[in-house]
Amino acid sequence: MTCTRQKDLNEEGRKTVAKKILVVDDSISMRQIISIILSGAGYQPVLAADGPEGLKLLDDQTELILCDYNMPNMNGVDFISRVRQGRINAAVPIVMVTTESEDARKQEAKAAGATAWLTKPVEKEALLQVVSKVTRTLEF
Q1: What is residue 9's DSSP assignment?
Q2: Contact in structure between 109 and 76 (CB atoms under 8 Å)
Q3: DSSP letter at 63?
Q4: Which tens digits make up the pLDDT trace of 25-70?
Q5: Are 69 and 100 in contact (CB under 8 A)?
Q6: CA distance 81 to 90
Q7: Which SS3 state, helix, strand or coil, does residue 64 take?
């Protein structure tokens, strides 16, 4: 027997599926914070410690990626480029969430295919606003 929470039901009372969001960040504390925020808002976070792990976890059900810029093994721009060149969900929106704030870095990420940019530390409301806005544009 499964228990359905009220927020798991849509307006017609039908069960809804939480939007899957891939979080790629080498900082365990950032992954945990973002996961808590997303879970609390009804999203399904999937966590990756770096770009290679993120590429392995990316699938067709991923509706959004939140990605750090500075990571070991593969930086955020290289990760975005690999996602955009791949066969799995290449058009998924990608929001760069990073301490970097220079325009040159933002332009580099945009050229690679980033959809939006948030500077750390990220406020809960700002994160949820961007997530909602980006995922809402995908709904028909």
Answers
A1: B
A2: yes
A3: E
A4: 999 999 999 999 999 999 999 999 999 999 999 999 999 999 999 9
A5: yes
A6: 9
A7: strand
